[in-house]
Design a protein that fits this description.
alpha/beta, 8 helices, 9 strands, Rossmann fold, seven-stranded mixed β-sheet
């Protein structure tokens, strides 16, 4: 039987409002990738397709992280993330789960991207796993369920916190604060009592991780949920 596939989505956006570089965040791709890639085929997509912009800060901050080092030189992984498919080429029917890698980039392009919204809604309507880490949940803020309600409404959720954003002084460098938006959409927002601590929420098919420290654990939560299906 063919190996089932998971879609990892990266941002195509590479600049903060202040002009400094951003993109997708290295460990938030690498850590869940290595949890899942021995069980599933991982495919990669982004709004523009092709090579998605890696946040240079994440490469610097995680330059001693074993899995991040491996990921940057892993030919199989590179073939995917340096040659992403366009979201417009993707069919939800082909995958068992959808995962959004974080980094600040996803706050800019994915929330308003109509192709992205429809794709996520297709996954949701097919009762498949919809998952994200850190700023990745920003990609889902305009995604609605079959009844036209936000998929966050009444569900447990986590993401990069306003407190964490404040600590790295990027509150004003992004279009909106993800924690604030999830709460406005009716999410039952949760986080670790300590900033930067790992935290994962699972509410049915919605699986979310809070921050870079949660990237491995969100991969495990996705794996666990798919094992039960």
């Amino acid at each position: 039987m063919a190996t089932k596939k998971i879609l990892f989505v990266l941002t195509s956006h590479d600049k903060f409002l202040n002009g400094k570089p951003t993109g997708w965040y290295l460990p938030e791709a690498a850590h869940p990738y290595y949890v899942l890639e021995s069980h599933f085929n991982i495919e990669w997509a982004s709004p523009k397709g092709g090579k998605a912009p890696l946040d240079p800060t994440s490469a610097e901050q995680f330059k001693d992280d074993a899995e991040c080092i491996k990921f940057l030189s892993d030919n199989k992984a590179k073939q995917g993330y340096e040659n992403t498919k366009k979201l417009s080429e993707i069919n939800a029917n082909d995958y068992v789960a959808l995962f959004y890698v974080g980094g600040h980039g996803p706050c800019f392009d994915l929330p308003e991207d109509k192709t992205n919204i429809k794709l996520a809604e297709d996954f949701w309507k097919q009762e498949k796993i919809v998952s994200a880490v850190c700023h990745g949940p920003a990609a889902l803020v305009n995604v609605k369920d079959q009844n036209g309600k936000s998929i966050f409404s009444g569900r447990k959720a986590t993401c990069f916190s306003n407190d964490e954003e404040e600590q790295i002084k990027l509150t004003d460098a992004i279009p909106f604060l993800v924690e604030t938006r999830l709460k406005e959409l009716g999410a039952n927002y949760e986080k670790n009592s300590a900033a930067w601590g790992s935290y994962v929420t699972v509410d049915g098919q919605l699986i979310l991780g809070a921050n870079p420290a949660s990237a491995h654990d969100v991969g495990l939560a996705i794996l666990n949920a798919l094992d039960k299906k």
